[in-house]
Fold:
Amino acid sequence: LPDIAGLESFEGALFHSARWDHGIALDGRRVGILGTGSTAVQIVSAIVDRVAQLSLFQRTAQWIMPQENPPYSEAEKEDFRRHPERMLQLHGDLSRLFAEGFANAVVDAGSPQMKLIEEACRANLETSVRDPVLRERLRPSYRAACKRLVISPDFYQAIQKPNAELVTDPIERLEAAGVRTRDGRLHELDVLVLATGFRADRFLRPMQVIGRGGRSLDEVWSQRPVAYLSLSIPGFPNLFLLNGPNGPVGNFSLIEVAELQMAYLLQLVDELRAGSCREISPTEEATEAFDAERVLAAKKTVWATGCRSWYLDDRGIPAAWPWTWGRFLEEMAAPKREAYERIG
Structure:
């Protein structure tokens, strides 16, 4: 939850977006949303036509990438059922398009593809927002994709509805009737949604995970979470992760990432099942070498171009996978035997 004075004094309905209270009616009510990340943007588009008044409290403007997402027709779905190979072909085509047009662009801040993304975001803002004053309030001061890029086909249209308001004055405190901003204005609300993000660096925690010698994961990750290829941790045998620390959380499809990671990890599990060893974990040397290379590569990504975001660790280094999709495919093809120690 955000650290805002008076949070407990608000007398309306209040909840975090991750704990949505479906018992609270929204229709015809005055609803406030704190935050302008992907979740908040989606909420605005989803509820603006239902509520009497929508107030979006913005601390930082976001670049919005337009993307249409039309439903497949019944004829298209029937064609996929009759010819499943066509769906696989479409999946492959989309994967390649995404890799070449986005995934490989964000890890090279100076790439031509990155410039095209920035141009698309600027054009979306310029052509979609009619009011020049509102347009400038919605214009970020950092490069597109430096923060996690927000994708929406209709946010700009939604925030321009007559019953929607963008509030950019800083929040002073919450009061019984609503949100008081620094300019002295009280924004009266019936419902307040906290779309204020998550602790993205927690991963397995708050679970207590104990490794060799009684060392806890909290102890090992006291500075920051690190894992070999985002999958496993020295000193924690047979503990395997999907989408762990330093993985491609903001640049690839996490569904495809998880599938490739699982196929990789099952090769290690097969060794355990075959009885060739009792324990498998990455070596300290392999993990340190991986992380050192990752840190150097991260400095060339668009995430390191001057904004504050949850991609950055305590040193200001982007924590996400900083290489291309092709590099990820190569790494996930098979475990490097020398990178792991085996016991038993």
Observations:
- The radius of gyration is 23 Å.
- The mean pLDDT is 96.
- The chain has two domains: 7-67+128-194, 212-343.
